[in-house]
Design a protein that fits this description.
Blueprint (H helix, E strand, L loop, with lengths): L39 H11 L4 H8 L3 H8 L8 H10 L4 H9 L12 E4 L5 E4 L2 E3 L4 H13 L4 E2 H8 L8 H15 L12 E4 L3 E5 L6 H17 L3 H12 L12 H4 L2 H23 L7 H10 L4 H13 L3 H18 L6 H11 L39 H7 L13 E6 L5 H11 L8 E5 L11 H11 L11 H11 L6 E7 L2 H4 L10 E6 L4 H7 L2 E5 L4 H12 L1 H6 L1 H10 L4 H13 L4 H8 L4 H4 L10 H10 L3 H10 L7 E2 H8 L3 H13 L4 E4 L2 E3 L2 H10 L2 H26 L23 H24 L3 H17 L3 H18 L2 H17 L3 H18 L2 H17 L3 H9 L3 H11 L4
Parallel strand pairs: 7-10, 7-11, 8-9, 9-10
Antiparallel strand pairs: 1-2, 2-3, 4-6, 5-6, 12-14, 13-14
Helix pairs in contact: 2-3, 2-4, 6-7, 6-8, 9-10, 9-12, 10-12, 12-14, 13-14, 14-15, 14-16, 15-16, 19-20, 23-25, 23-26, 25-27, 30-32, 30-33, 31-32, 31-34, 34-35, 34-36, 35-36, 35-37, 36-37, 36-38, 37-38, 38-39, 39-40, 39-42, 40-41, 40-42, 41-42
């Protein structure tokens, strides 16, 4: 059976109880999971500890030697004598059921299902049949078997299997080879004895292959079941039973998931998630060990884990606490120093509040000491008193603007109970300055909270793990003076104690960077004398609806505030000296405070002018340049990444494609066309993106992006994805623009509908008003679509859409826009070689110049249009051009030329007449 990782973390095994039992990575005797029911030694040891007896005392009372009891618990004695078992059961006060359970682990013969294969992936890949290893030497079979076990109970797709087996690209015969490898894996999984239960096998699914096996035939399944059981017991609360389940769960781990596999498997998302569950189990195991005052049992495992996860602050915090609780203060402080140096060197950040809190607890000796089972805990121990908490972080330099928002936050201080707010949620996009506003207001108003201030970064959007409410409650309770060794293990009990301690206090609680409402609800006190300020990228609508919170939404700075912020960073004199360039710079930054601060920091660090720096930022690579050299956190892109990566896959796709919008915003139906989805699905995704403050609802039902966010979204979309999405959107615009034009301007020639089925979410214009309203709302997008389509290869759509829009833009007196659209349509028609479309575009350009009173230019363009219409064999176009040219000559007093053109009934002859007579009199 699998053996646990053994870490030498204490004294030799012959030195007695206490610290000598820290030889196993999880505080139990070596031997690994023995069969389905667990081994005898660990079960006996758990019962002994429950009874509060040391090995020496238990052995003495049972009439056996201490060494014999130690050998039994270590698994060196597989079948203890029945008389010895009976004596131990009496000493440990076991019930009849517990004794039967203990006896069941000593049964001889192979355990039930011993002949069935068992697949081990929590460490190097191994296949066992009963207790015998089954060699799997083929690299391809190891890859396939590892992937199937990793995805269990979900199927592995054909694409996943192909990418795993051939990371550099599959051979032409890969389909046939996959069938061969699957057959070979099936033979490996065949049982070696009678089939009392279904044997694991590999079955075909519509999308790939599935490992069909029960959860207890894969070590990862065993681990997950035990971890779920431990979490239920932890909530019960039953820390002793939870600790036992965690101990059994962690003994299945022999190293990282598929430790000997190729990187494509080791880095598979399912492997990453499994390793994260291991970390979660270790954190819970360490917390429970501290609660049970058995920290020495968690130390070896924590050492192992911090070596595997050198930047995980939660693991380091537990190691610091457990070492300190074992009396190893110097070692605990050394762990803190090494982590602090490493975080600074590799990430440029300081340790989190969780780690700093653990460090302070060691320095102040506010820790539960390790307690031997045969010694009662000292009664009446309390934590030493201390000053009122003042946890607000330092301010980040000068603060400008946001006067209205600061006044809204002052509602937390209103003397009128009816007007006073209890909770204010400051929400907004990444980098908009939510934390800066909260910290500035909190520092300015802290005198109103005589009992102190609590502050925590909840890491809702952070590269570090999100803090659980239970972790934050523990920090706050310690800060409020609760004895560290008496903190409730249950989250609800901890929240109740937290509310009790704050009942008569006037405190400010700042909950920064919240993920969602569920994360902060347990941290909101019931006392009306306390005020809570929450910052989040989520809208936290649940808090507003259910908890009476007020929402304070932050947007980008207006141009004047943005300019003052830049001046406060680089110096007002320097900004004033290049006033125009300074305003151009904050415009490039889109008024986003984070971007302005980064740009200002770069100007301070470099000897360059503001205008020169603006020139550097111009172009498509703006986001890459908005970063502080050497600080990976101080980038606009890093702030956006955290919000983007937290989205579900479909929302991420919607966000990427929204960067392709040709205009300032898009409707729900337009977004549905862009993403090839239904209107209902599109609306739901847009709500999700709005809630994450990556998208803004500019008007009812219309959604847009901040300039920098839009640049970021365009960076994420691939060329193939962009091409397909643009085609869908442009065809959708053409379909509806043409329908509206035919309804509103039936006398005017218009482009025919696009070939094929109508695009998704097609609107039906029931009357003129609906068609006119649609054109008005989509005008900027339609004009932008013509320009974008012409520049991205969709030339036919571009000139057809330009034709459909002309009457609407002309009648609406959008002459400048009409001219741009006509010019783009002309270029697209030239690219397509469409003479009739070129003629129509020239005539539309001529009419625009005529409306702008550019008569000479208009007459020249009418002449060009006339010639193109003649070449295209388009008599209607020729007639239109002749009428316009005749009107021009009549206006200029050349009535004889106008009459001559009018008398010529044949357009072709009229063209020759124009050429022979000239276009001006």
């Amino acid at each position: 059976m699998p053996q646990p990782v053994v870490i030498e973390g204490g004294r030799s095994s012959d030195e007695g109880d206490g610290m000598s039992e820290r030889t196993s990575a999880v505080g139990l005797a070596p031997g690994g999971p023995a069969g389905e029911q667990g081994s005898f030694g660990p079960r006996l040891q758990a019962f002994r500890r429950r009874a509060g007896l040391s090995q020496e005392v238990a052995a003495l009372r049972a009439g056996i030697s201490t060494r014999a009891l130690r050998d039994i618990e270590r698994g060196r004695v597989q079948r203890p004598q029945a008389r010895t078992l009976q004596r131990l059961a009496e000493v440990l006060e076991l019930t009849g059921g517990e004794l039967a359970e203990l006896l069941a682990t000593t049964r001889t013969g192979p355990p039930r299902g011993a002949a069935r294969p068992r697949l081990l992936i929590l460490g190097p890949l191994a296949l066992q049949r009963g207790r015998d290893p089954v060699p799997v030497t083929s690299p391809m079979l190891r890859r396939l078997l590892g992937l199937l076990a990793l995805k269990h109970p979900e199927p592995s797709t054909q694409r996943e299997i192909t990418d795993t087996l051939w990371p550099s690209g599959p051979p032409s015969s890969h389909q046939s080879l996959i069938h061969t490898y699957v057959s070979q894996v099936r033979r490996l999984l065949e049982p070696g004895g009678p089939r009392t239960v279904p044997a694991p096998t590999v079955v075909r699914t519509p999308t790939g292959y599935l490992l069909q096996a029960s959860r207890n035939q894969i070590d990862l399944g065993h681990f997950d079941e035990l971890l779920a059981q431990a979490e239920r017991l932890h909530r019960a609360p039953d820390p002793g039973a939870a600790y036992e389940s965690l101990t059994q769960a962690l003994r299945w781990w022999r190293g990282p998931v598929l430790a000997d596999a190729d990187p494509v498997l080791r880095q598979h998302p399912a492997a990453v998630v499994a390793n994260e569950r291991r970390v979660k189990a270790v954190l819970l195991y360490a917390d429970t060990a501290l609660l049970l005052r058995r920290p020495e049992e968690a130390v070896p495992l924590l050492w192992d884990m911090v070596n595997a996860e050198p930047l995980h602050e939660g693991l380091h915090a537990r190691l610091i606490l457990t070492l300190g609780s074992c009396g190893e203060q110097a070692a605990a402080l050394n762990v803190f120093s090494r982590l602090r140096d490493r975080l600074d060197k590799e990430l440029g950040i300081a340790p989190s509040a969780e780690v700093r809190d653990a460090h302070l607890r060691v320095l102040r000796q506010q820790l539960p000491l390790a307690q031997r089972p045969d010694r009662p805990a000292p009664a009446g121990r309390t934590a030493p008193g201390g000053p009122s908490p003042a946890q607000l972080p330092a301010m980040a330099g000068a603060y400008v603007g946001r006067r209205r928002q600061l006044r809204e936050l002052d509602a937390l201080l209103s003397p009128d109970p009816g007007e006073r707010a209890h909770v204010v949620a400051v929400v907004g996009a990444p980098g908009v300055g939510k934390t800066a506003l909260a910290k500035h207001w909190a520092h300015a108003r802290r005198k109103h909270f005589e009992d102190g201030q609590l502050f925590v970064d909840l890491r809702g959007h952070s590269p570090l793990p999100t803090l659980r409410p239970a972790d934050v409650l523990a920090q706050f309770l310690r800060a409020l003076g609760a004895p560290p060794d008496r903190l409730p293990a249950d989250e609800d009990e901890a929240a109740a104690l937290y509310r009790t301690l704050l009942a008569d206090k006037q405190m400010l609680i700042v909950l920064d960077n919240a993920r969602d409402a569920e994360q902060v609800r347990p941290l909101i006190p019931g006392a009306r004398g306390c005020a809570v300020v929450i910052t989040s990228r989520s809208r936290l609508a649940g808090l507003v609806a259910s908890d009476g919170a007020r929402q304070l939404a932050l947007d980008v700075l207006d141009p004047d505030e943005a300019r003052r912020l830049l001046g406060s960073i680089i110096g007002e004199c320097r900004a004033t000296a290049e006033e125009e360039a300074a305003r151009r710079l904050v415009q490039l930054c889109g008024g986003l405070p984070l971007a302005i601060r980064i740009a200002g920091a770069n100007l301070v660090a470099r000897d360059t002018g503001i205008a020169d720096y603006c020139a550097e930022l111009a172009g498509d690579d703006l986001l890459s340049r908005l970063r502080v050299e050497g600080d990976r956190r101080s980038t606009v892109r890093a702030a956006f990444d955290l919000s983007y990566l937290a989205l579900p896959a479909e929302a991420r796709r919607m966000f990427r494609l929204l960067g392709l919008m040709p205009g300032p915003d898009v409707s729900v139906n337009g977004a549905a066309a862009l993403t090839d989805s239904t209107s209902a699905a599109s609306a739901g995704l847009l709500v999700s993106l709005t809630d994450a403050h990556l998208v803004r609802e500019r008007a009812a039902g219309r959604f847009g992006l901040h300039d920098l966010v839009r640049s970021y979204a365009r960076e994420l979309v691939s060329g193939q994805e962009a091409h397909a999405a643009r085609q869908r959107l442009f065809e959708w615009y053409l379909y509806h623009a043409d329908a509206a034009a035919r309804l509103l301007y039936p006398a005017e020639p218009a482009a025919g509908p696009s070939a094929g089925a109508p695009p998704s979410a097609a609107l039906v214009f029931s009357d003129h008003g609906e068609a006119s309203e649609w054109l008005d709302s989509e005008r900027e997008n339609l004009a932008g679509a013509v320009l974008q389509a012409a520049g991205s290869g969709f030339t036919t759509i571009a000139w057809r859409l330009a034709e459909s829009l002309h009457s609407f833009l002309s009648v609406g007196m959008y002459t400048g826009e009409c001219l741009k659209v006509a010019t783009a349509g002309l270029l697209a028609a030239v690219a397509d070689g469409e003479l009739r479309a070129q003629a129509a575009a020239q005539l539309r350009r001529a009419e625009c110049h005529w409306a702008l009173a550019n008569r000479a230019q208009a007459v020249e363009l009418f002449g060009r249009g006339l010639e193109l219409a003649r070449q295209a064999g388009w008599p209607e176009g020729q007639a239109l051009a002749l009428r316009r040219i005749g009107a021009a000559h009549r206006e200029n007093g050349c009535d004889y030329l106008a009459r001559d053109l009018t008398r010529r009934g044949d357009p072709a002859a009229a063209v020759e007449g124009v050429v022979s007579l000239g276009l001006s009199c």
